[in-house]
Specification:
CATH architecture: Orthogonal Bundle
Strand order of the largest sheet: 3-4-5-6
CATH topology: Arc Repressor Mutant, subunit A
Shape: elongated
Distance between the termini: 39 Å
Order of helices and strands: EEEEEEHEHHEE
Oligomer: single chain
Strand content: 25-35%
Length: 138
């Protein structure tokens, strides 16, 4: 498996060089993978149309953070992501004070999903972060 790493290298006036890993990607996944419609019991996430619906009812998620966060979590169900991983993937910047930002976006997504179903697709993993789970039944 090959990986691509994005590294920020800075050189101070003293000549000291520091490197910071910003992102790491596996090259095995095809580029079209991100265009695949994600379907879970009742929930449909369409990355091409940037639309999320539950049994036909469109959820009014904000494009930037709510939609991108849900896509990020749902693309790998049952995998636990830290708040820092979510922040890096969605905000596309190095995490500083991520807790409240990620918490608010997750809370907004949950609130909008609860308007159409009792299912809790995003679960909190205490002390670690969040994961997306498929919830069969109603």
């Amino acid at each position: 498996m090959e990986q691509i790493e994005i590294i920020l290298r800075t050189t101070a006036s003293s000549g000291k060089v520091t490197e910071q890993l910003l992102a790491k990607f596996d090259t095995e996944k095809p580029a079209t993978e991100s265009d695949k419609i994600l379907q879970y019991s009742g929930l449909c996430i369409d990355p091409v149309q940037h639309q999320v619906s539950y049994q036909g009812s469109v959820l009014p998620l904000t494009e930037t953070y709510e939609f991108q966060t849900l896509v990020y979590l749902a693309s790998q169900p049952n995998r636990v992501f830290t708040k820092e991983q979510i922040y890096r993937a969605v905000w596309k910047e190095e995490p500083v004070d991520v807790s409240s930002a990620v918490f608010c976006v997750i809370a907004n997504i949950r609130q909008k999903v609860r308007k159409v179903t009792k299912k809790e697709y995003i679960q909190t993993v205490w002390g670690v972060g969040y994961k997306f789970v498929d919830v069969p039944g109603e």
